[in-house]
Design brief:
single chain, mainly alpha, globular
Length: about 120
């Protein structure tokens, strides 16, 4: 009897893990679709939910930073890049984005218009 109970708990636990992963995959797919449709706020909302479940996903922080930058939220974009770098300090894409964002924040401080990196431009 204990073997059947153990098996039931294992099966339920495995289902829960698979369910959470599947839900996270759906969130990322939805974020991709919202972004493709130009709905950057909605894409960011899906990413926030994904990150609440997977707080160590450095790639998702980069993506969140990119979305925030596109929305004109440069300080929040830099926060996202920094959060990603705390999770993966060697990520060259995050380092590059943060460097460009810091450069752009200098432009804004001087009253110049922001310049999105070419890969983020609409």
């Amino acid at each position: 009897m204990p073997d059947m109970v153990s098996r039931a708990f294992f099966t339920a636990g495995l289902f829960l893990v698979v369910s959470v992963r599947a839900q996270s995959d759906v969130r990322l797919q939805l974020a991709k679709q919202w972004e493709k449709n130009g709905e950057f706020d909605r894409a960011a909302q899906e990413l926030r939910m994904h990150l609440s479940e997977h707080p160590d996903d450095a790639d998702a922080y980069r993506w969140m930073g990119d979305l925030r930058w596109r929305l004109g939220r440069l300080p929040q974009a830099m926060d996202s890049y920094r959060a990603g770098l705390r999770r993966d300090p060697g990520d060259s894409a995050l380092k590059g984005r943060l460097a460009l964002a810091l450069e752009d924040s200098g432009r804004l401080a001087r009253g110049e218009p922001p310049v999105l990196p070419p890969e983020l431009a609409p």
